[in-house]
Amino acid sequence: MVLDLGRVEIAAEVIINGDNAGILWKPPFQIDVTEQIRSGSNDLEIRVTNLWANRLIGDEQLENTSDYSKNKPMPDWFIDNEPMPEGPRSTFTTYNFYSNDRKLMPSGLLGPMVLKLQAIQPISHF
Are 94 and 65 members of one domain? Predict the structure, then answer.
């Protein structure tokens, strides 16, 4: 049994019936799940890692509560290795690589996802 996730942006961890079947991070996004599949119902979990760029683009649309700008020194919380101040953002960078009007990049489990049954045929010697 081969699980084909189709198109994935950027990585996916496959868990079947509680067993980690593996992590896929490059095409083809296919993995042999013969050992994890059982007769009857199965639980399939796919954990997909999003693009960091999308998080940065999303945060640029939110209020900056970091107390940092290009014209100021690094904020005290950063210098003192403390958590970022409470606010809607998840990230902090010293340079804005992406503007808030930038389109998000394709990300996630884009498929199509297919479970393939493949027969193994022995090759006889000549």
Answer: yes
Contact between 46 and 13 under an 8 Å Cβ cutoff? The reply is yes
Query: Is residue 83 in some structural domain?
Result: yes
Distance CA 95, CA 62 (A): 16
Q: Are residues 37 and 85 in the same domain?
A: no
Which residue, among 60, 40, 41, 46, has the nearest Cα to 13 in the 3D structure? 46
pLDDT in tens, 51-98: 889 999 998 889 888 888 777 888 899 999 999 888 898 888 888 888
The predicted-structure confidence for 102-114, as pLDDT tens digits, reads as follows 999 999 999 999 9
> What is the distance in angstroms between the CA of the first residue and the CA of the last residue of the chain?
29
**52, 9 in Cβ contact below 8 A?**
no
